Amino acid sequence: MTASISSERLRSRxxxxxxxxxxxxxxxxxIAIIPIVIxxxxxxxxxxxxxxxxxxxxAVDSAVLAGVVQPSGQQVSTANAIFRGDFxxxxxxxxxxxxxxxxxxxxxxxxxxTVNTSFLTVMGTSSLGISxxxxxxxxxxxxxxxxxxxxxxxxxxxLLVNSGAQLNAPTCEVHVLSTQNPAALFNATLNVKxxxxxxxxxxxxxxxxxxxxxxxxxxxxxxxGSLPTVTVGSCTTNNKVYDPGSVTLSPGVxxxxxxxxxxxxxxxxxxxxxxxxxMTFNSGWTVTGNGVTFYLVDQNATxxxxxxxxxxxxxxxxxxxxxxxxxxxxxxxxxxxPINGTSGSSFTGLMYLPSRNVTINSVSNVxxxxxxxxxxxxxxxxTNWTIAPGxxxxxxxxxxxxxxxxxx
Length: 408
Fold this sequence. Notes:
Order of helices and strands: HHEEEEEEEEEEEEEEEEEEEEEEE
Structural class: alpha/beta
Oligomer: single chain
Helix content: 10-25%
Number of helices: 2
Radius of gyration: 35 Å
Shape: elongated
């Protein structure tokens, strides 16, 4: 009985306590709910702002992608029209956008807008600013470097690959600018990542691996007019013949005929070798030059390897001629440049000879971990070349007509 009375008294006292505290609890709850509501409202406003910014970015992206593939005079107007159609008035937010056609062929756009807030207004913030920007480039995006570029547009068979030729360059692309019929002829397969031929007609006897792409937007010459200008002084060596033995040469101007006969060992000190005439390495010579650059003054200047020559030549890594192994001025008349076999050569650097019709004869073994070659045309006969991209590699930013990509 006592336990029952005690329990009833406890329940009665509890009911009286809660009735007494009811008004105070309501007040505490009302005060506590204010920051919760503000936090929820802030999250709603920022979420709305984030969603609208995403749509703004999509509109700018679409605008520059659509505009950059248009003729230069229509790029900006097209981009503006696309932006207005994608964003203007659709999200209850006014926006302004501007677009700029850049000298490299890309199109840049930027846009800004304000998003009206609902809950943040009570905190004195009636709107949030948002912005977006993007740059588009024409072509199909690719990170593959171009190791060989043949710049002739007028020669048929600008690239001729004869039976027995081997080119192992699985990370490189080969680009051919010829539009003649046929632009290229293949009598052997090539182990390269991609072959891009501007012309629409090629001949394949025995197939090409990978298949050559015709009507492809091959890159233009990225080095034309941009390489260092050389002032050619007076001759330091003129009509010199070197017989078998050990020879060491220093940079200078080599005029007339410079011939290395018999067999011997040649060491080239680092620096610039200006060839104003011919320099010919005949069978049996071992040529070593680290940090060297050869400059061929005109169309009559040649650097020729005949027979069983072993040459290890590497361009400088710093200075005016960094990463340039051999080059010539632009605008020269076309001439032939044969490479008649090397026993085991290694070339490192840019070989920029856009006026030369290069022919690789006999068995030419060349390995390089970093080479970029620009020739007028190229004939590969009995060749065994293994090459990889050079420090001055040519990037691929072109593709089929009407395509574009967003650049970072």
